[in-house]
Amino acid sequence: MKNTFGQSVSVTVFGESHGECIGAVIDGLAPGIKIDEEFISDRLARRRPSGEISTKRQEKDEFRIVSGVFEGYSTGTPICIIIPNADTRSADYKSTASLARPSHADYAAYCKYHGFEDYRGGGHFSGRITAAIVAAGAICELALAMRGITVGTHILRIGKAEDRHFSDIKEDIKLIKERAFPVLCDKAGDEMKKEILSAKEQADSIGGITETAVSGLDAGVGEPFFDSLESTISHAVFSVPAIKGVAFGAGFGFCDMLGSAANDPYTIDNGNVTTKTNNCGGIYGGISIGTPIIFSCAVKPTPSIGKEQDTIDFIKNENAKLKITGRHDPAIIHRACPVIDAVTAIAVCDAMAVRFGTDFPHMKVTADIKKEGER
Ligand SMILES: Cc1cc2nc3c(=O)[nH]c(=O)nc-3n(C[C@H](O)[C@H](O)[C@H](O)COP(=O)(O)O)c2cc1C
To answer: Does residue 370 belong to any structural domain of this protein?
Structure first.
């Protein structure tokens, strides 16, 4: 299933950057989810480029839901969302169509699709496709919200500018969603914007690290071995263009810790099982234990830059030079945050549906089955 993710709740994406439209089909979602179109618009607005730190391409993202919703609620049949492309400038790509942009998918797509690929604006590999993912993710977020599950992503680092880590997870997720630029601390946000503008002034681009939290997820979700919760989430997250690393909890930081510092001590808080630290990012043995899920992602610098680069002309099979002049993001990371939220919501919806069934948003109580007797 090349353009489809998910076992129980699945999302298929379609479209190209300069084609008529992009879109997504979500299958396997419960009936009775209130489809709040303003909420979907808000999520799309968070991904949309704005100001000097983003591409000049302006798309209104006026989406249409053409199936699976009746009288404002999901029906339980496939939901199809369509988003028209309006602001395309395909001429920007004509003269460089056989020059492989270093770090972009042009040459890889040529190898796979034998030259039949739509190369305009990066075709199916453009960041534009992520608008459809955000719309589908927003609907999954609405399903998760019915069970009190929320998702939020902020930028942890760009260049030398660093944000604080999550602390009060629920409140911090709310805080990120109130801000146009996805950070927890405004000052860090201003410094990050300066880092982006400085890269742009040098006709260059910059990457960084994001941090994501999932709050309110039930304990017992995840299907070890191969569909562990880490595997399901990272499968979805690695589908986002430009994500090159995913680490749960302390991640590679574990390498510098002894077990006594790395282990998360258990404790009972108000009768509930929790841990005093969350180095494992809320997942043990591939299964959630009801504490927040935390993971970070490495986002690479935008491949398309104005500086001259060495490359190849893959039609002529000769070396070439490339200086990119089209409209591009000097950094992807701030626009990637809502996309990471979306794929996380899709992955968690799928994991919940695999564990509890399609109707999980309507579940009254979590499974309370315990083996009787001592052990
Ligand atoms: C929201 C978003 C916006 C993007 N904008 C651009 C862009 O303006 N120019 C560009 O070269 N790449 C952009 N990208 C990244 C490319 O799509 C991506 O690097 C390329 O498809 C290769 O995939 P890979 O980085 O996963 O290997 C963007 C990605 C995202 C998620």
So the answer is: no
